[in-house]
Amino acid sequence: MDLTFLIYIVITISIVAYSIYEEKLHSKRQIKSIEDFLSSILDTSIPSINTEPIEEAQTTLTNKNSISIDNDTNKAEQVDPINNSNIKKEVDDNLINKVRTPTNIIPKETASEIETLIEFPQKKLTQEESNPSDYNRKEIGELGEALVYNFLEKMKDDSDELFHESKINGNHNAAGYDIKFISKNIEYLIEVKATKGPLYGRIILTSNEVSKMQNCGTSIYCIYRVYDVDLEMNTGKLACFIGSKQINEFLIRECVNNRKFAFN
Amino acid sequence: MLLLGCLQTSDDKEPIEIILNKLNLESKSAENDGLLGEHLIMEYEKDRISKFGLSTLVKHRSQEKNGDRYGYDIESRSEGGHNLFIEVKTTRGNIKTPFIITRNEFNKMKELSKIGEYAIYRISLYESQYRIIKIIGIENIEAKFDFSPIDYIYKVSTFSDIKSIDLNLNT
């Protein structure tokens, strides 16, 4: 019973406080209506041949205190900005002044509204532009491996052995490397990391690959970094990091990327 | 804000399990299970805080423009009246199935828990039944889950002078 009464009292106080606050803000609110009008004028996408709203809009500019917010917004949208240079000039001057001194004239929330409204429309990005690293990731990876395999095949002697592990096993992540190269009884485990971007761009190593790198026994773990991959020309550039010493020297671990959460 | 102060506070920080049956999952338009789970939680949260008249405050952030930047899926209100940031993780089958948290989600988890309450809603879908386990608060999340890295970001040191070889598949 006490709690209900308390809630009732708090609600009543808040309503009264809000109404007082509303009254005090009344004069400031008029400015908001002008801002709506100004931003609408600048929008050239709504031309109109109706002259009535122009007169009303002019009234809005001269008699700021007599127009309500809603009416003003609706009418301002119909004004032809091209055929009313006087209004536009006045509007431009007002807007420039207000944007330059937003804290003096415009309440904070209105200033942020203007900022949003005068922002240039953003071009819709294609998948490649919005996330260049992810676009065609699979194709880039496959081409990178093919380029390295092709390169090693040409380099190898008759006694050397070459296995494209990720293709043999099917499961790309299982082995922790992509290509096995055996030369003079030394086993090289090669992980190919290919990107369209430059050499210094980010690459992702799975925990399985990192684990294999750290625990590869007598084998030598290598990262073959293929960059500037061109899917159309089937070309790329290769930088090799052979053995844990070179990998530690030239590759920096920035951070953990994804994490697996499991109930304990 | 005054109204929010009237909500009852809850000291229950233990994971809460909810089982709801006979859901017509096919009626939900969803591209995948993840989105379906988010829709379910949207409805669940709206219903949960509708008694306070606050259901309009539930926001489906991940569906907004550039929604990934938020690092959580749904914004709601906790029983204590604070902002509640919800990450929804949905799988079919066993609720114990591990799930993935991205780098951005993980970083945001810590940031958001400073300005409000953070929660993971773990949903498992099985036929027409779904189970939700709510884990509220970063301390509980750290206590209830083991989290292990799946992958790491590396980059070549920009100070290195590295020789490169041109590759061409056609030659």
Write the layout of secondary structure elements.
The complex is a heterodimer of chains A (264) and B (171).
Chain A: H1 2-24, H2 26-42, H3 52-62, H4 69-76, H5 85-100, H6 102-105, H7 108-117, H8 127-130, H9 137-155, E1 161-163, H10 165-169, E2 179-183, E3 186-194, E4 202-206, H11 207-214, E5 220-230, E6 235-242, H12 243-250, E7 251-256, E8 259-263
Parallel strand pairs in A: 3-5
Antiparallel strand pairs in A: 1-2, 2-3, 5-6
Helix pairs in contact in A: 2-4, 2-5
Chain B: E1 16-20, H1 33-50, E2 59-60, E3 74-77, E4 83-92, E5 99-101, H2 103-115, E6 117-126, E7 129-136, H3 138-144, E8 145-149, E9 151-156, E10 165-168
Parallel strand pairs in B: 4-6
Antiparallel strand pairs in B: 1-7, 2-3, 3-4, 6-7
Molecular structure report:
The complex is a heterodimer of chains A (264) and B (171). With 264 residues, chain A is an alpha+beta fold. In chain A, 50% of the residues lie in helices and 20% in strands. Chain A has a 5-stranded mixed beta sheet with strand order 1-2-3-5-6, sandwiched between helices. With 171 residues, chain B is α+β, with helices and mostly antiparallel strands. Chain B has 3 helices and 10 strands. The termini of chain B are far apart. The N terminus of chain B is likely disordered. Chains A and B meet through helix 1, helix 9, strand 4, strand 5 and strand 6 of A and strand 5, strand 8, strand 9 and strand 10 of B.
